[in-house]
Amino acid sequence: MTNKSEPLKLLLVDDETGYVEILSKRMSKRGIEVTAAYSGAEAIRAMRGRYFDAAVLDLKMEDMDGIEILKILRTMDSKMPVIMLTGHGSERAAREGIKYGAYDYLTKPCNFDELVTKIKTAGIGDNRGDGDGK
Amino acid sequence: MNITDNKTTQMTGLEYYRLFIKKMVILLVIFSLVPLLLINTVLRHYFLSSYSDKVMEHMTELIQKHKQNIDNFLQERLNNIRVLASSNSMEQLTNEDFLKKNLDILQKEYDNAFVDLGIVDINGIQIAYAGKYKLVSANYKDSTWFNQALKSKYYISDVFLGLRGQPHFIVAVKKQWNNKDYIIRATIDFNTFNSMVEKIRIGATGFAFIVNKTGQLQTRNMYNLQTINGTSVLDFLNKIDLQKEDVHAVQNLQYRGKEFIFFIVSLKEGQWRLIFQQEQGDAFSELYKARQMGIIILLCGSIGVILIYYLMSRKMIRFIELSEQQREKMNEQLIESGKLASIGELAAGIAHEINNPVAIMVEEAGWIQDLLKEEDFKDSENVQEFSRSLLQIKLQGMRCKDITFKLLSFARKTDPRAVKTQINDLIEEIVKLSKQRAKYSHIEIKTEFEQDLPELMASPSELQQVFLNLFNNAIDAIGTANDEGMVSIVTKRTGDTVLISFSDNGQGIPKSNIARIFDPFFTTKPIGKGTGIGLSICHGIIKKLGGDITVSSEVGIGTTFELTIPLFLEKDTETPLFKEL
After folding, report:
1. Rounded Cα distance, B405 and B352, in Å
2. Which residues are CB-contacts of B101 (< 8 A; sequence separation ≥ 6)?
3. How far is CA B486 from CA B429, B434, B478, B479, B530, in A?
4. CATH number assigned to the domain with residue range A8-111, chosen from the 4 options 3.20.20.240, 1.10.730.10, 1.10.510.10, 3.40.50.2300
């Protein structure tokens, strides 16, 4: 279980660098420590030997299908909650993601406060389990 | 541009079909007519030749019979005189009373075939005579017949006028008495003989006559034979070599402007010829009739065949033309829906691409807001303005999102599967969903549903999209135009179609815009408020269902959209309207 005084560790996967950068900045102000990954491969590398309270995953990536990344992340840490970001019209992919164990999804551009709330409830709440799932 | 090109190729396609059918019809006509012609020709040939043979055979037989009759007549008359000469002595024969008695008997027995009897001595002087002419002591010394008669035992002369000036001929028998030759002669009545030949009549134009070796007529000239090229014909016929007793036939002889058939047979041991002539058309009249009938049947058959193929080809061309037209129409529809699909694709691409920068923009604004909240900036003079401006950036960013969402719904795949759908329920659902929005805009919703409206086969999600669009349009149209806004929705069945109307008392649509209202991306709403694709989607969906969507509107009074959807759709509805993206 993560200590509440410690910042929440978040893996943010999105190939849109500008978006990842600004979100990281804003989240650090909200007590979330963001590790950025700009591709599916980077996300997998980041996961190795690291622990994250939650992950935010853009479903539309250039190198890998979002659902595929989700599946790999789930095999690496089955208890880590994953929140998906989708465009409108890709809700079907998002619903499919839920089927593969994603925690929730939001459409892009999303409401920042809503995203933060979702991350916090997912990362701190009961959803994370005991954190020893590695 | 594409449509024009299409039309050109279709035109040439149609021309090609026309040419193809024309060729096919010609080929069919040939294949049908050639056997018909062949059969007709062969049968006609066999029929004509066998019939003609039969006619000729019959005629030959007839002429042969007549020849025998005439020959018999001549022979019998000669025999009469022979009997008279041999069974009586010259003393008796030179007795005129005796002669007279015998003439009477002969005339009585043979229907006046004998005109007179006479005995002529070697010097040509008639020493005894019985008959109506006064020919006792007449001198025949220079007569042809007398000289000929002296040369043989029996003799039958040609027809001549002689001393009496009447056509007649002589039957003579030579007899010796006291070592001197005498001629016992009898004159044969020309009329009796002539009537025998005249009796030979067949058909309307067939008659007979007799000519001697020099081509002189031995019977009455009934048909002006010699006056019109007659002599040449007689000469021609006379020159023909005859087999002893056989009947010789000459066909197709052009004579007096007509075709004639001639039968020639020798008489009197080759000294005379019995000639029978008949117009060929008369002789073969039945045959010609049959031939004509054959031609008529052939003609009718051919015309029938050609007519049937002609009508058939016209029907086929008409059919092809119709299907070409349908194809053209379908092509146009396909192009139209293709256009819509590509517009959808484009819209979706743009929407996706725009979402990322908009998201960054909104987050950057949020970041500034976050920073402004920190101590250092709180006292800043313009902090209020900053906050307002940032809020505005975020708000406009969200509007961008709304617009892209709308664009994406145009491209979004709806479930196109047709199932039994109750229109009333669908509309009811939409009304419930939009009640809050309507209430907020002070708009009253009135529904008038026909009870027992039959279900129809359609995709509920597509229809929902249509109804929602029309309903939202109605609410938007009222907007601020009318304080007592009213949207009324009516469903009813008319025959085999369901009629749905959405009426509002909003601002109405100007006439100039009515024609373009279903065009994609045509909108009168302010920029950012509408994408102009809603009605174009509705139009596409309703057309796909085989229905129609019409609009009637008056500025300041309101607008009514009327949908008609057939209850039974013949076409397969499995094809989605838009391409899945």
Report:
1. 9
2. none
3. 18, 13, 8, 11, 21
4. 3.40.50.2300
Q: For B451-490, how does the pLDDT look when each residue is reduced to its tens digit (9 = 90+)?
A: 888 888 887 777 887 888 888 888 888 876 667 888 999 9
CATH 3.30.450.20 domain span(s) along chain B: 88-192
Check if the beta carbon of residue B115 is closer than 8 Å to that of residue B168: yes
CB pairs under 8 A between A and B: 57
User: Mutating which of A12, A14, A22 best tests the B interface, going by the most B Cβ atoms within 10 A?
Assistant: A22
Rg of chain B over Cα atoms, rounded to whole angstroms, equals 60
List the single residue in B with minimal CA-CA distance to A14. Answer: B356
Confidence at residue B540, expressed as pLDDT on a 0 to 100 scale: 82
Instruction: Enter the CATH code of domain B200-283.
Output: 3.40.1840.10
Predicted confidence (pLDDT) per residue in B171-193, tens digit:
999 998 888 889 999 999 888 88
* % of residues, chain B, pLDDT over 70: 85
Q: Which one has a higher pLDDT value, A40 or B417?
A: A40
Read off the pLDDT band of B42 (50, 70, 90).
very high
Tell me which chain A residues have a C-beta less than 8 angstroms from the C-beta of B411. 89
- What are the backbone angles phi and psi of residue B488, rounded to the nearest 5°? -120, 135
In chain B, which residue's Cα lies nearest the Cα of A112? B363
Provide the sign of the torsion angle of the four alpha carbons B383, B386, B392, B395, taken in this order.
negative
The least confident of B128-132, B275-279, B415-419, B525-529 is B525-529
Query: What is the predicted pLDDT for the residue at A36?
Result: 94
Our CA dihedral for B10, B336, B354, A94, rounded to 10 degrees, sits at: -110
Spatial separation of the C-alpha atoms in residues B103 and B109, rounded to whole Å:
10
Best residue in A24, A62, A112 for a mutation probing chain B (most B CBs within 10 Å): A112
What element of type H or E holds B448?
A: strand B443-449
For the domain spanning B414-581, the CATH number is: 3.30.565.10
Tell me which residues of chain A, numbers 59 to 98, contact chain B at a CB-CB cutoff of 8 Å: 60, 87-89
Residue A11 has pLDDT above 60, yes or no: yes
Rounded to whole angstroms, the Cα distance separating B212 from B266 reads: 10
Kindly state the tokens that stand for B30.
Answer: 């040939």
First to last CA, chain A: 12
Q: Which of B245, B235, B249 is nearest to B206 (CA)?
A: B249
Q: Say yes or no for a CB contact (<8 Å) between A22 and B360.
A: yes
Task: State the DSSP H helix or E strand holding residue B105, giving kind and residue range, or none if neither.
Answer: helix B96-109
Q: Which residues of chain B are in CATH 3.30.565.10 domains?
A: 414-581
**Largest separation between any pair of C-alpha atoms in chain A:** 39
CATH 3.30.450.20 assigned to domain B88-192? The reply is yes
The C-alpha atoms of residue A78 and residue A127 are separated, in whole angstroms, by 11
Would you call the peptide bond into A109 cis, given omega within 30 degrees of 0 as the criterion? yes
Closest C-alpha to B447, from B469, B431, B459, B463: B431
Q: Tell me what ipTM this predicted complex has.
A: 0.83
